[in-house]
Design goal:
The chain has 5 helices and 7 strands, in the order H-E-H-E-H-E-H-E-H-E-E-E. It is of the alpha/beta class. The protein has one domain: Rossmann fold, CATH 3.40.50. The longest helix is centred in the middle third of the chain and has 14 residues.
Amino acid sequence: MRVIAGKYKGRKLETVQDNSVRPATDKVKGAIFNVLQSRVHWTSAKVLDLYAGSGSVGIEALSRGAGNCIFVENSRNALQFLKSNIASIGAEGEAKVVYGDADTFVNSSRTKFTVIFADPPYALEALKNIPNKIFEKGIVAEDGYLIIEHPSRYEFAQNSLWEVVVQKVYGNTSVSFFQHKKSVE
């Protein structure tokens, strides 16, 4: 696993060797950032990486110019790799690592994020509630994005707060990009 573009391009990232963490593949990561490339001004973006694992997606955002990123992870094992990866690229000043539950963080956050990445375990029972909870808490900036990596077979029920504006499918993996639902006038 590596950083695919930007100032940390080519830097190797380590992850947990067992299957407790499923890092985003370079192909999926590339697709995410290709979609966001012309939509997000990274230098002014506030980035949140939920279920961060090794931190590869948030680190990619930092590499592409994000001024900072908050990483939230509740696995002590993954947390060691996350901190090590941030240190190995020298991004400690741009990264804040939070050990804890993603739901707890979302419930207590008052920040509006430009980009929120969520790559929860595919078996997570609460997967269907992630977009509703995040948009109800009001932590997605008005023109911001929530990006969720999830199983391809999974579809989110429609909601009045958000809409899926882009969806990419790669075999068993899908990436859905959510934004505030635009009112039709």
